[in-house]
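>> received
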Amino acid sequence: MNMLLKWAGRLSLALFAVIIAGPLLIVAFTSFKTTPQFFADPLGLPEAWSLHNYRTLFSGQPMWRYFGNSVSVTLSTVALELLLAGCIAYGIFRSGKRLGTALTGLFAVGLMVPAQVNMIPIYSFVQKLGLGNSLSALALVTAAMLLPLSVFMLAGFMKTLPREIFEAGEMDGASEWTLMARLAVPLSAPYFAATAAFLFVIVWNDLLFPMLLLSGKDKLTLPLALLQFRGEYVTDYPMLLTGVVITALPMIALFIFLQKYFISGALAGALKG
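>> returned
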């Protein structure tokens, strides 16, 4: 019976892997096809493996600029988000159980408001500030909209930290800023890494706010730039999916680099929570 359950589990994992990997392989294979080859055999292997789409993507389109725009917006947004959310989460952690629970609930309420509801007020506010078509405005707006999520995640993580260490630091005369910088942040490093990876994916793939706030072609981010391959009557799917591959590579590299921190942060929260 145990052996049967073991093989059933393995079969389920294999099936799940096929379901996940199948579409990814189709996207990767399509990036090496021409448009006629794609329409002739959408699911098959390329007749000839060629980097033509990749060369065309970077020679015929200002993709390096779009890539730089996405990197700039994503890194600045995530850095600002971790700074603000880290300070707020630490304040919640140190404010006591009753007040901390109330504050966490307040930020949890912010998760219930869809971003689409705030589109018109956000657009109007940004235009009044004179920050229309600005990457800095996009980073600020995105950070503000993701703040409830980041605070909710980090506050939940920080609740697992041993309070005795902070009480001992207080007895030694350490200030709150010292406790946060020298104790809370180092101890929460896996949690910050896990939150950063999660935020990176959201910001990097965001299409709503770039479409709302950016109008100049030189300010496009990668997800917004990929829409250029969609025509009214015809869509260049090989070029579009080549752009998808290029867009996905930084996320893959990020998760490979932060994998141990992400897993350790998740396990710490599960074991100590």
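>> Confidence is low (pLDDT under 50) at residues 268-273.
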